[in-house]
Design brief:
The protein is of the alpha+beta class and 340 residues long. The protein has 7 helices and 17 strands.
């Protein structure tokens, strides 16, 4: 089974994040239009024996931050050399501000993950992120380097009555759009992974070309989600000599109770149908809860062949419609905090 890394460049603002379930939906419609309904059915039927794994999309060189057990105030004090019981001081206020910024970080460097996957712990992760926050403060003070950044824009829309030729009273509303820029203010690169026995490089290239031409996500008919495929290459999955857990690179739906044994952030998804079904009588799926990418799930018996998550049924009145919920597991050796 090969793992491919698909590299994208975003050429417009984006309304829909690069989540695995949304990418899966785009693959399904691309296959339906390019290869026919029978080819799509055969691909989906093969998921029982060997599902195709799709990760979320991430900025170039980034991985989702692994979720670990939160450190107590006493543990943070020991790690960062401050006394949590002492009266407030200017230094403690600065540390508290940095910890607040640290808490909001959802991404880490891919290379750091590779270097620390066999010795992952809350202390190591917090130390790295705290150091990163301090370095960013220094860069902001010197203003010597531009930072890669995500900019969120609120774009106003209105509701127009075409019979009366005027805007409806109270019809003003807004949508959030995302732009991603690199250090040179150029469009950012994204990447995601596909691991499959049935999708080879040639087939993936054809599917991605179709998606690139038709657009990605919401409002693609008005110019949002314009992507360019910059490359498809083999990707070496980081190995771990003594794994006891995994970090998921995709949002996923636990298939067994054991897949909740770890640390994770729940995400409620309100799925919507695409392609020809988007104009149907009911384009909305039932809400469901997933675990966000970065979930760290403990499994002493982890092997690269094991599969986590499932293809969720019962999400729509049409029984044929399903929701993609497989995890994309990357093995790690996780150690709990020393004081626990």
């Amino acid at each position: 089974m090969r793992t491919f890394k698909i590299i994208l460049k975003l050429l417009s603002s984006l309304r829909t994040p690069f989540h695995a379930d949304t990418l899966f939906g785009h693959f399904c419609w691309a296959m339906r239009f390019l290869e026919g309904e029978e080819a799509l059915k055969a691909w989906l039927d093969g998921f029982e024996a060997s599902p195709t794994l799709i990760s979320n999309g991430f900025l170039k060189g980034r991985f989702p931050r692994p979720l670990t057990r939160p450190l107590s105030l006493a543990q943070l004090g020991k790690l960062l050399s401050f006394d949590p019981d002492a009266p407030p001081t200017p230094e403690k206020v600065i540390i508290a501000g940095r910890l607040k910024k640290l808490k909001k970080k959802s991404m880490i460097e891919e290379q750091w993950f590779r270097d620390n996957r066999e010795n992952l712990s809350p202390e190591i992760l917090v130390s790295m992120l705290y150091k990163q926050v301090k370095e960013e403060e220094t860069q902001d003070e010197k203003k010597t380097t531009r930072k890669r950044r995500q900019e969120e824009m609120a774009v106003m829309h209105n509701t127009f009555n075409r019979q009366e030729g005027r805007v409806l009273e109270g019809g003003l509303y807004e949508f959030d759009e995302l732009c991603y820029l690199d250090e040179q203010d150029q469009p950012e690169q994204f990447w995601f992974l596909v691991q499959s026995e049935t999708l080879d490089e040639k087939r993936l290239a054809a599917l991605m070309e179709f998606i690139g031409h038709s657009g990605f996500g919401a409002d693609k008919s008005t110019g949002k989600g314009v992507i360019e495929v910059e490359g498809i290459e083999d990707y070496p999955i980081p190995e771990c000599k003594n794994p006891n857990a995994f970090v998921s690179l995709s949002n996923f739906i636990p298939a067994k109770p054991e897949e909740l044994n770890g640390y994770y952030q729940p995400l409620t998804k309100y799925g919507k149908l695409g392609g020809e079904y988007a104009a149907g009588y009911n384009p909305f799926k039932k809400p469901l809860v997933m675990l966000q990418a970065g979930a760290l799930i403990k499994d002493e018996s982890f092997t690269p062949e094991k599969r986590y998550g499932k293809l969720q049924t019962g999400v729509h009145k049409d029984a044929k419609i399903k929701h993609y919920g497989y995890g994309f597991p990357i093995a790690v050796h996780y150690q709990e905090s020393a004081d626990e």
